[in-house]
C-alpha cells in the first residue's frame, strides 16, 4: 500500500477524517482505538496466538456464510486467503491496538476487519476506498 513518498493517508468515516499511515492495512476505527485507548503500552500484536485465533474465527465465518449463500464465494475465498496470511504472522504489525483497549473488543474486531478488507482489496487489485467490493464492517 506504499504510495511513493507519502507517509499518511486520510480516510473518512461517520466520525470524520482520520490520519492513517499509508502502508497500514488497518483503517479509521483502529486509528481511533489507538488514539483513544493508550492504556498499557502493550499491543495486541504482542499476543500472536490471539491474532491467529481471531483470523481463524473470521475464516470460519466467511466459509459458513459462503456455504449459506450469504457471501459471494470469491469474496469468501479472498477473506480466507487473507486470514491465512494473518494466521501465519505475515501481518502481525497491522495490529497496533493496546491489549487493554476499551469498548468490549470492538476496536480489536474492527482492526482485524479493516486489515482483512484492505488486504483483500489489494489482492483484488482495487483501491482501498472501493468499499463496494469488500466492506470492513461486514467482513
Would you mind describing this structure in some detail?
45% of the residues lie in helices and 9% in strands. With 139 residues, the chain is mainly alpha-helical. A two-stranded antiparallel ribbon has the order 1-2. Helix 1 (28-36) packs antiparallel against helix 4, helix 2 (48-67) runs antiparallel to helix 3 and helix 3 crosses helix 4 (106-123). The chain is globular, with a radius of gyration of 14 Å. The relative contact order is 0.19.
What is this structure, in a nutshell?
The protein has 139 residues and is mainly alpha-helical.
Largest sheet: 2 strands, antiparallel
Q: Determine the N-to-C terminus distance.
A: 19 Å
Share in helix: 40-55%
Please tell me how large the radius of gyration is: 14 Å
Shape: globular
Structural class: mainly alpha
Q: Report strand %.
A: 5-15%
Topology pattern, helix = H, strand = E: EEHHHH
Number of strands: 2
Q: Which parts are unreliable, with pLDDT below 50 for 5 consecutive residues or more?
A: none
What brief labels describe this structure?
mainly alpha; 139 residues; globular; 2 strands; single chain; two-stranded antiparallel ribbon
Which helices and strands occur, and which strands form pairs?
Blueprint: E1 8-13, E2 16-21, H1 28-36, H2 48-67, H3 73-87, H4 106-123
Amino acid at each position: 500500500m506504499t504510495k511513493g513518498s507519502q507517509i499518511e493517508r486520510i480516510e473518512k468515516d461517520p466520525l470524520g477524517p482520520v490520519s492513517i499511515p499509508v502502508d497500514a492495512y488497518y483503517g479509521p476505527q483502529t486509528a481511533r482505538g489507538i488514539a483513544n485507548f493508550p492504556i498499557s503500552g502493550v499491543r495486541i500484536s504482542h499476543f500472536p496466538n490471539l491474532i491467529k485465533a481471531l483470523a481463524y474465527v473470521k475464516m470460519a465465518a466467511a466459509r459458513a456464510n459462503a456455504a449459506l449463500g450469504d457471501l459471494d464465494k470469491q469474496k469468501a475465498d479472498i477473506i480466507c486467503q487473507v486470514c491465512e496470511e494473518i494466521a501465519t504472522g505475515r501481518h502481525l504489525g497491522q495490529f497496533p491496538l493496546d491489549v487493554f483497549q476499551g469498548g468490549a473488543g470492538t476496536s480489536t474486531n474492527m482492526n482485524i476487519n479493516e486489515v482483512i478488507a484492505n488486504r483483500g482489496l489489494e489482492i483484488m487489485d482495487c483501491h482501498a476506498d472501493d468499499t463496494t467490493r469488500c466492506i470492513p464492517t461486514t467482513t
